[in-house]
Amino acid sequence: MENRIYLSLKREEKNIPIVFIERIEKVGEYLASFNCSDLVIFTDKMVYRLYKDFIDSLSYSYLYLFDEGEESKSIESYLKAIDYLLDRNVDRRALFVAIGGGVVGDVVGFIASTYKRGVRLIHIPTTLLSMVDSSIGGKTGINYKLYKNQIGTFYQPEMIIICPQFLGTLPKSEVLSGIGEIIKYGFTLDKSILDMKDRFENDVFEIFQDKILAMQLIKKSINCKVKVVEKDEKESLLREVLNFGHTVGHALETYYNYYFSHGIFVILGMVAEMILSNILFNFDLSNLDFLIRILEKNSIKLPQRFEKSQIISIMKYDKKNISSSIRIVLLKDVCDYVLGYEINEDILYEALDKFEKIVLS
Ligand SMILES: NC(=O)c1ccc[n+]([C@@H]2O[C@H](COP(=O)([O-])OP(=O)(O)OC[C@H]3O[C@@H](n4cnc5c(N)ncnc54)[C@H](O)[C@@H]3O)[C@@H](O)[C@H]2O)c1
């Protein structure tokens, strides 16, 4: 199947290959084509447990295992990995390979961009979300204190290797999480993704039984992201569109202490931001029905507590904000977006009231 999409960054004269392969056994060949002093593989304990034979077959110098979960995006976890590399005298001609979901990708991206002022990096995403979103575009980050991604860099990898074989072991909640980001592309950048609405509503696993369809969806999503990042790598404005659903989504994720997977909070965030879009731009709320049905069918229920003032105060720390005003991406219609809208707190309260009635009742 080997085929590629390129992410072309003119300013840096970089053409980053996103390589699609059918079988994980091919990964070794790609890694062998890079000259390096040490090959350092980073993954998490869960991925290692599932893919031990494959990972051990790669000729690595060092293997570093993170605990699974968002906690690995902490400053302590970052420093522990840096100590590990320093203790082994890993130099800047090394090659780092991040095999895992968005957590491993984000923290290893940050390590690669800061260790010895930058070490080459390859992403091998293993969750649907990391294939269609987090491994593409060069954002790295760790969380600090209560807030997500407060410390980070833009750092592009040498290559991204996508192998849908990894999806075979993904639990349903993680598939749904990736679908959340895919639906976001549908509402903001590529309407044709929403033609699959009915399939998203039915059993999410079913989509991935059909390998050709799954690959088409993954590629469509990656194309959306690539086009935006090529135009606005450092998020001066256009790239904000990818944050649709994330301003409220991230705040809920922090408030509910990562109770669901990331993309599920994005679905909840899209519901809230569509309600806001309706209040401010008359966005057609019938679009919400399909998201609500997905939440219901998959028994996604938020815990009952819902303190709006606390959720809004978390939103103020969102890194998209300028000073403490809350900036948000809204929709006038499907794929007709408004970027950087500075939202008034009263309207936010009104929208969260409606959101609470729809989602928590
Ligand atoms: N950098 C970006 O542009 C960007 C974009 C979106 C999200 N993110 C970040 O990504 C993170 C979420 O990523 P995620 O959803 O991939 O979560 P994750 O990395 O926590 O992975 C979810 C779970 O799935 C397990 N897992 C990974 N691959 C598996 C496989 N093939 N089979 C079975 N289990 C597997 C992991 O061990 C983990 O327990 C968040 O921290 C979010 O902030 C970053």
UniProtKB/TrEMBL annotation:
Entry's transmembrane regions: 94-115, 259-283
Residue ranges of every copy of the 3-dehydroquinate synthase N-terminal domain listed in the record: 66-175
An annotated GO cellular component: cytoplasm
Presence of keyword Nucleus: no
E.C. code: 4.2.3.4
Superkingdom of the source species: Bacteria
3-dehydroquinate synthase C-terminal domain mapped to chain residues: 178-321
BP GO annotations: aromatic amino acid family biosynthetic process; chorismate biosynthetic process
Cofactor(s) named in the record: Co(2+); Zn(2+); NAD(+)
Alphabetized NCBIfam families for the sequence: aroB
UniProt GO MF annotations: 3-dehydroquinate synthase activity; metal ion binding; nucleotide binding
Protein name: 3-dehydroquinate synthase
Keywords: Cobalt, Lyase, Membrane, Metal-binding, NAD, Nucleotide-binding, Transmembrane, Transmembrane helix, Zinc
Pfam families: DHQ_synthase (PF01761), DHQS_C (PF24621)
